[in-house]
Design brief:
Elements: E1 2-8, H1 13-17, H2 30-43, E2 48-53, H3 57-70, E3 74-76, H4 93-99, H5 103-109, H6 122-139, E4 144-149, H7 151-161, E5 179-184, E6 190-194
Parallel strand pairs: 1-4, 2-3, 2-4
Antiparallel strand pairs: 1-5, 5-6
Helix pairs in contact: 2-3, 6-7
Length: 195
């Protein structure tokens, strides 16, 4: 049986300031480093063989800490990067509301319909994230893996494996340092749950 643990990176300044971090290159705050150390301590007996992460500094930093605690290698994967909405990156939620017209109300109230030129949709994020999960499951049969990513990516994965639609995006709560477990049984059936 293959098991994949999914972890949201530790807390950052943008999280505390209610900013849309997006693909900015900010690092973990001291609190976030401690969060991730606690995650690592909690996973130390799970026989994890590899850590994979998104390429942003906060996920790489989280993965490096986890890899050190678990004594396994870590590798960045583009498919685990945060959603690409470049003109929002680094803005507070209030600044997005002020500067971007009705974009943010649509994002909040009808996320499944959110679509802007040169930006990713939630469906596209979900497709790339599920794609990398499938690839890792095929390559790492009967192993335990750890993936470190972002709120939006992890929400999309939870929705997919709970067989919920993108319209339910706001119903999934994932705090910094949260852990989910995606398991696959001998019949190839997959299920996900918070731990």
């Amino acid at each position: 049986m293959t098991t994949i643990y999914l972890v949201r990176h530790g807390i950052t300044l943008a999280n505390n300031e209610n900013r849309f971090a997006g693909r900015t290159d900010e690092e973990l705050q001291a609190e976030g480093v401690e969060q991730i150390r606690q995650v690592g301590d909690g996973l130390v007996n799970k026989n994890i063989s590899n850590v994979f992460c998104g390429p942003c500094r906060r996920t790489v930093q989280s993965a490096k800490i986890l890899g050190s605690i678990l004594q396994v290698p870590f590798s960045p994967l583009e498919e685990l990067d945060e959603i690409n909405i470049p003109h929002w990156d680094g803005l507070t939620k209030d600044e997005i509301r002020q500067n971007c017209g009705d974009e943010y109300p649509i994002w909040l109230n009808r996320p499944h319909t959110f679509s802007l030129p040169e930006c990713e949709t939630l469906k596209q994020v979900q497709e790339r994230a599920v794609g990398v999960i499938n690839r890792l499951l095929a390559r790492h049969n009967s192993e335990s893996l750890l993936l470190v990513s972002h709120l939006i990516v992890l929400r999309c994965l939870v929705l997919y494996y709970q067989e919920l639609g993108i319209k339910d995006f706001r119903s999934i709560k994932i705090d910094n340092g949260s852990i989910f477990c995606l398991s696959e049984d001998a019949m190839g059936r997959r299920s996900i749950q918070a731990i």
